[in-house]
Amino acid sequence: MRKLAVLLALFLAILPLHAAVSSAYAPLYSRNLALGGTSVTSARYSEVFYSNPALVTSDNQFLSIPSASFTLYNINKLVQPGGALDIFFTQNNSDEDMNRAFNQLINSIGAGNGDVVSFQASAGFISGIAGLSLDTGIDVHSMGEGGESSTLILEGNFALSLAIALPWHIGEHHSLSFGLGAHLVFRGYTIESLSGDIIPGGFTASSLIDFYQSDDVLASVLNQVPVAFGFAIPFDLGFTYSYSDIFKTGFVIKNLNGIYHMQTYSSANQLYYMLTGGYLGDSVPEAPVQGPSFRYATPVSFDIGFSLSTPAGGIWDWIDITGSLDVTDVYSLFFTDGLSCENFLQRLHFGLELTLMRTFDFRFGINSGYMSFGFCFDFQVFSLDFLYAALEYGEHPGDKPLDFITLCIRIGFEED
Amino acid sequence: MRACILILILAVCMTSCSLSTLEGIAGLTDSLKENIYVNTGLVDVDTAPLIRDIEAQVLNPETLLVSSGFIVLPSCKLNLSPLYPDSPVLVLAPADRTLLQELALAGENKVKRQAVSRFLRQEAGEEACIAAGNTAALFSDLVDYLGPDHKLAPVLSRFCREGEDFTLADILSFQVSVSLLSTALSYFEEDTSVTLGEVTDALKQSAEEIEPSYIDAVALALGQGKSVARCIGSDWLFGALDGVLDYVRRSL
Q1: Cβ–Cβ gap A87/B216 under 8 Å
Q2: Model ipTM value
Q3: How many whole angstroms separate alpha carbon B31 and alpha carbon A370?
Q4: Is the domain of B120 the same as that of B86?
Q5: N or C: which end of chain A has fewer CB within 10 A?
């Protein structure tokens, strides 16, 4: 009975988490964000796995081997005179200049919750009505006072996703599609300590500078910073209605069963030992320590979307224009947060895409009030995606915007 | 990694209508970061907490004024007794660090900028005006010590505002200037007492003699100062800091 009570308490524990690690896992897709965060009916190829599984049948064949993206946050500060990128591009790029640029990158971290840098890689395929995708990413989040005093959280995710859709054609023009997506997500992040509340964190930004400048610190980070690691098996349900591929509407319920089962470890090396039986680096950690386990639930989201595209044929084979509009997290809008102008606009996303000669894509979007831009060179087997966007990290619109750029390179094949 | 970032920047340049420099990109991203719904008035912005914090800073003599032979800065003590040997002088204290962060962030929000600017339009009190005049004189003395041939002299002379009537925006601008002076004085060891003469001697050093990390810290503080100047609508402070930042940048 006592065990049951402890388990129940752990299950119901509401943990003080950084916004990033307490949210559902979803890779950062440069196209979706360039289109203002719209994806319910406008997602394509690998984006459908985390946007709307009912769209799997929109594109007949897709193979990515692999795609990789790099995101750098806080661009506005980094390009200011004396900022990290200013030093990076105007100096001699000696070791000292690189150290200075790195220091300025750390010093420009703002106060409160934010992001610093992110790397992602994925591979996957879609064939007919089903697809499989592997996604992995490493993100550095920040919180605290800002600058060198910021607390950093290193988060890693690895996810295997399966999506399947059942299309139903009604006559010549109308079609419906029902989709199911399931994900096996492994998530790990650094934490403050094994005792007390499990709080994400682990090291300050100044120790990251030491980490950058010295190899020895790598061993101490691997052996001294405690980590939480666990898994979740969330799934998504999606539906779309399409009229001749010109008009689409649909909805998706994302992240059902998004409960993470986490276990804490005294260090990343200890976790590595538990997973593989070996250690990273030369120095072996001292006594192996396994801390408390816990669970936390990530929120479910109910999103609806609409999109309009130019019809196929004639000149429209060479010039394709798509407009999309999403309202995300509709349930909380009506039943939790309340319907107000601000709450509605925070969930409103709008995107416009112009594709020329099936090769050059120009994208524009408005994401909760922030403009986003992107373009893509798509050479069929190779594509290069660029994105500039800003996201709100504060409580209300305009409180704390953080801008970022993403570059995504993909090698693969796709066919409509 | 470097090639990756270079491609990113090139991509930004291509999308920013032939903007060829990082400064151009900085200007562009300044405006792109703003929220459309806030700027068009579709979303209400609560400016009261920010105004309260500013009020606590610029209308409270305890946080506003320093009456002493020293200005006690977070970095060191600036000894004013050689300049004013007869009696302690009333000058403005450095602005609170948290308020500076708050103002720099608020600079990205048009509604907050307007509210702050409106509030700071009012005339400052008599004591604050005297302290502001003395603070301006401090910068004037700094320029005199440097000599007219020093490249920084014309830049620093922008801080030497003349007059007796100042608005609250001027008062806060001077406080920001004193805060930046404090960052510049981090060159000296903590808790030491330095005179303006020693400060100018340090400024006269060549760029090679100065630690790059020190220049970087000053550049960041100046960048934040510009954001604050933008928020409080102080054109003279923005121009002055831009000049100093340009000087520092050329020393990189």
Answers
A1: yes
A2: 0.86
A3: 10
A4: yes
A5: N
